[in-house]
Amino acid sequence: MTEVRYFAAAAEAAGRHGESLAANSVGELRSLMIERHGEALERVLTRCSLLVDGVVTNDATSLEETDVVDVLPPFAGG
Question: Fewest CB within 10 A of the end CB: N or C in the chain?
Fold first, then answer.
């Protein structure tokens, strides 16, 4: 299963800092996260970057069971 790590507002919306999910692509993973955690996470995900093993991705990106996906909302600051 792919390890998902939630940060900041994404962690708050999901109600957790991480979980393991089985998905074949980032798009499928995004759908599973919304299905599990609802509208609050869906709203946050529209502003988030999803990084697979540290690389920014899109919904078409394939996932392996050993991948780590970080869900990063935009950060403020200077």
Answer: C
Which one, of 74, 73, 75, lies nearest residue 13 by Cα? Answer: 73
* Total residue length of the chain: 78
DSSP labels for the chain? -EEEEE-HHHHHHHTSSEEEE--SBHHHHHHHHHHHHHHHHHHHHTT-EEEETTEE--TT-B--TT-EEEEE------
Which tokens is 31 given? Answer: 């759908």
Distance between CA 76 and CA 1 in Å, rounded?
A: 32
Token pair for 13:
């919306």
Which pLDDT score is estimated for 31? 98
